[in-house]
Amino acid sequence: MDIRETNRRVIEQFRAGGEVDGMHRERLLLLTTTGRHTGEPRTVPMMVHRDGDRLLVVASNVGAPRHPDWYLNLTDDPRVTVEVDDRKFEAEALPLLGADYVRAWTELERHYPFLADHRAKAKQAKRVIPIVELSEES
């Protein structure tokens, strides 16, 4: 599977406003970060978890030993663009910490049991999977 081609297709279908093949549109968002090496915009589709009014994304990278590129980008520049539902807005990406992280992770694993496997794989590599809140800028 060519992940870039899959992402391109998902982004195109999401922006067209219709169904996204093989995915639940209401669980998706598009996140645009600024490339830390290129300074160019980088858009990725990802699963979103709605925690009350908060939008959370998980940098699981399927439990890989390193953080996904989008997460590394936002650690350099937390200003991002979010496309969710039929809205597009500028946001600040804020990694969760402490008790907020623990509560959110527990809730995420309850809703998405596959994350337990991602966490176990990442733990072997001594990596903690970040959870990021996308906070709309006012």
Description of the structure:
With 138 residues, this protein is an alpha+beta fold. 34% of the residues lie in helices and 31% in strands. It has 4 helices and 7 strands; from the N terminus they run H-E-E-E-E-H-E-E-H-H-E. The chain has helices at residues 3-16, 69-76, 98-111, 114-124, and strands spanning 28-34, 41-47, 49-51, 54-58, 79-84, 87-95, 131-136. A 7-stranded antiparallel beta sheet has the order 2-1-5-6-7-4-3, sandwiched between helices. Strand 3 and strand 4 form a beta hairpin. The termini are far apart. The mean pLDDT is 94.
Task: List the main descriptive attributes of the protein structure presented here.
7 strands; alpha+beta; 138 residues; seven-stranded antiparallel beta sheet
Proportion in β-strands? 25-35%
User: Shape, please?
Assistant: globular
Number of continuous helical runs: 4
Uncertain residue segments: none
What structural class results from the helix and strand content?
A: alpha+beta
From N to C, what is the helix and strand string? HEEEEHEEHHE
Report the mean per-residue pLDDT as an integer: 94
Assign a percent range to the helix content.
Answer: 25-40%
Total strand count, please? 7
Radius of gyration: 15 Å
Major sheet characteristics: 7 strands, antiparallel
- How far apart are the first and last residues' alpha carbons, in Å? 39 Å
Give me the side-by-side strand order of the main sheet. Answer: 2-1-5-6-7-4-3
